[in-house]
């Protein structure tokens, strides 16, 4: 009886995992696309109203971070959606984990401890995507 029950719940749990991964991928992609575009497109003075740290680092660093966030956002969704090199989704998630760990260290070094939990939560969600798309529920590449 337990073998039947586990057989019946296995596809459901796999489906739930895949749905959860897609939801997290889309939410993270939206978040990182928004912040990345903001750092790429707005003048530093305008950014400083919501991100005071941007006036204390070189402008090119702010733009580089924006580029990394935007690339990560695209990498979270496009490879999986198109099934062209879908393994890149896990790599994009790993890159965003690195961005969030560095952001946490940066904010902590400036005494901005209120920012660290958000960085760690976003990093944890990216870790979930990296694990999910790398090991637990990878997406098969498109065949010709």
- What class do helices, strands and sheet pairing give? mainly alpha
* Mean pLDDT reading: 93
Q: Span from first to last CA?
A: 42 Å
Proportion in β-strands: under 5%
Total of helices = 5
What overall geometry do the principal axes of the alpha carbons give? elongated
Order of helices and strands: HHHHH
Low-confidence stretches: none
Helix content: over 70%
Would you report the number of β strands? 0
For the biggest sheet, the summary is: none
C-alpha-based Rg, rounded: 18 Å
Give your account of this protein's structure.
This protein has 144 residues and is mainly α. It contains 5 helices and no strands. It is elongated and about 50 Å long. 24% of the residues are buried.
Summarize this structure briefly.
This protein is mainly α.
Observed structural traits:
single chain; mainly alpha; elongated; 144 residues; 0% strand
Fold blueprint:
Layout lengths: L1 H40 L2 H5 L10 H24 L4 H23 L6 H21 L8
Helix pairs in contact: 1-3, 1-5, 3-4, 4-5
